[in-house]
Prior knowledge:
This protein is of the alpha+beta class. It has helices spanning 2-38, 89-94, 106-118, and strands at 45-48, 53-59, 63-68, 73-78, 82-87. It has two domains: 1-38; 41-97, SH3 type barrels.
Amino acid sequence: MNEMTSSLIVMVVFIAAMYFLLIRPQKKKDKQIQAMRNNLQVGDEIITIGGIRGKIVKTKEDSIVIQVGADKVKFEMMRWSVSSVESSAKVAKTFVEEEPKKAMPKRLKKAAKEEEEIIPEDEK
């Protein structure tokens, strides 16, 4: 009887350890992935399970339409095929766009630099 209870206790402890080390973290991860897939919005940039990068242009109940590549090819795929969200439409809207920096050709930069060297700043 003593051996039987000790082996039963060991079995219960082993099952509890397996639950806390393997099953519970996997369920938590699955819930996060499901929440991410349910919260997909138009404008989100995603990566699919197959490695395709695209931007969501239309959402449906079980599927999404994404735009891919320079030719802006659109195709429909299932929500479960989304692996991760690169950038969210909400995040993109919150950033304030700065003025674009004006690019200057190298020869003009060089000329401007030489001009600064020739004319001291005191005389300007």
